[in-house]
Amino acid sequence: MFLVTENKIVRFLSVKIYHSIESFEKVKNAVVTTGTFDGVHLGHLKIINRLRKIAKAIDGETVLLTFSPHPRIVLFSDNSLKLILTKSEKIDLLRKAGIDHLIIHPFSREFSRLSSVEFVRDILVNKLATSRLVIGYDHHFGRNREGSFEHLREFGPLYGFQVEEISAQDVEEVSVSSTKIRKALESGDVKTARAYLTHDFCLSGIVVKGNHLGHKIGFPTANIKVMDSHKLIPANGVYAVRVLVRGKEYKGMLNIGIRPTIDDSDKTIEVHIIDFDEEIYGEDVRVFFIEWVREEQKFDSLEALKNQLIQDKIEVLK
After folding, report:
1. Same domain, 240 and 313
2. Could you say which of 80, 162, 273, 290 is the most buried, measured as most Cβ atoms within 10 Å of its Cβ?
3. Is residue 4 domain-resident?
């Protein structure tokens, strides 16, 4: 685990994390990229791997600038937008991807009004001291998304940095986007999501008290409350999962839905952690989705539900 505190630098292994551009400490030969990076998927990893390759060749350090909240939430009050990653989940994955410096800058309407020239001059050059810039295909930046790769090629010689664009061919080769991943998860297709992401989709939350129905039928569950209202929740149903609790991983079976057998209208996320029997109310857990098992369904009795859960457990353990 690691501690994240606002407006301070946090070191986790070899990564320095900054919670504003102002707190960034300039480095020699900064190789920079910028974007939302929701999902940290295959396409993002292409950019990051190129970043690392260039940094190694010029004895530089990689710098990734991203934003929180997501720009769409700020600019369009898009509360319907669901994100693949929470802030802490994104930090974890970018750390694993091998970034040297991660800047998570607070996105605001004021920041969005920077012109493309101001963004390049004030942010990329004066604040980040960019030596090389790597961007994804069709990347836009600045007020009203006015800046483009063509603008960056013009600005580069003027401000003393080189720019490289990940080609359309490279992007199409992986054929992946955050939108495709969201659609897969919203239909319960966690295997397709994993293929695009190269990692298991996860949910992070706090264990809260439920109605103890699971205890009554021999399948106690931890009820998970996801604190981030913009976090994407996969389709209702039963899933095989891995559960990280107290620093240890367990196998588990998870249900997302309204528990129709007991006529419960509230949507819940419940996980039965296999071979685990400890009280963890108020504790953080992280659940990794492995496979869709079945749709949520209504049973005639609690005994029928119990019999189905026995079969679910056999399937999950496979």
Report:
1. yes
2. 273
3. no
Residue-wise DSSP of 199-262? S--EEEEEEE----HHHHTT---EEEE---TTB--PPSEEEEEEEEETTEEEEEEEEEE--GGG
Could you tell me if 157 and 243 lie in one domain? no
**Integer CA distances (angstroms), 50 to 17, 199, 205, in order:** 20, 19, 33
**Domain membership flag for residue 193:** no
Distance between CA atoms of residues 92 and 109, nearest Å: 27
Q: Which domain range does residue 205 map to?
A: 200-317
Strands 61-68 and 101-106: parallel
The string of pLDDT tens digits covering residues 21-39 is 999 999 999 999 999 999 9
CB 204 within 8 A of CB 215: no
- Residues 138, 90 share a domain: yes
Write the CATH number for 47: 3.40.50.620
User: Is 171 inside a domain boundary?
Assistant: yes
For 47-83, b/e burial (b = at least 16 CB within 10 A) is: bbebbbebbeeeebbbbbbbbbbbbbbbeeeeeebbb
Cα-Cα-Cα-Cα dihedral sign, residues 129, 131, 137, 140: positive
The model's pTM:
0.86
The bridge status of strand 162-165 relative to strand 130-135 is parallel
pLDDT (tens digit per residue) in 207-230:
998 776 776 777 889 999 999 999
What are the structure tokens assigned to 128, written together? 């980040």
Sequence-separated (6 or more) residues with CB below 8 Å from residue 189 = 292
Tokens of 200: 């298991």
Say how many domains are in the chain: 2
Same domain, 25 and 169: yes
- Same domain membership, residue 245 and residue 106: no
